[in-house]
Design brief:
Structural class: mainly beta
Order of helices and strands: EEEEEEEH
Oligomer: single chain
Number of strands: 7
Largest sheet: 3 strands, antiparallel
Strand order of the largest sheet: 1-4-3
Strand content: 35-45%
Length: about 110
């Protein structure tokens, strides 16, 4: 991502992420639009609500499920799907890197 190496410099950000249909991108800012394409991909458009520096920007794409919180309407949390965790585990567990993190009791 392009950035200015000065923490005091604030910018507005427009982020466009295209990914497979079974993936969900999460990004800093407000999701303003989703476009579906004939090849099965989707493009998600995010825009920051307030100007911010590049250090506060983040992007993550994966197989997530989304759920609303009961206590705070409009606030959502995202968790990796079982399929995504199995895929991660196939790479990391043989090295015993994250066995505890991926245990069934740690899953939502």
């Amino acid at each position: 991502m392009p950035c200015i190496e000065d923490m005091r410099t604030l910018c507005g950000w427009n982020i466009r992420i295209t990914c497979q249909g079974d993936h969900l991108p999460l990004a800093s800012g407000k999701l303003v639009r989703i476009e579906e394409h004939k090849d099965g991909t989707k493009t998600y458009f995010y825009k920051t609500v307030a100007s911010t520096n590049s250090v506060r920007m983040g992007i993550c794409v994966g197989q997530f499920r989304c759920a609303a919180t009961q206590d705070h309407p409009g606030v959502f949390y995202f968790a990796a799907t079982k399929k995504a965790l199995d895929h991660i585990e196939s790479y990391l567990v043989p090295n015993k890197v994250v066995k505890e993190v991926l245990s069934p009791r740690a899953m939502l």
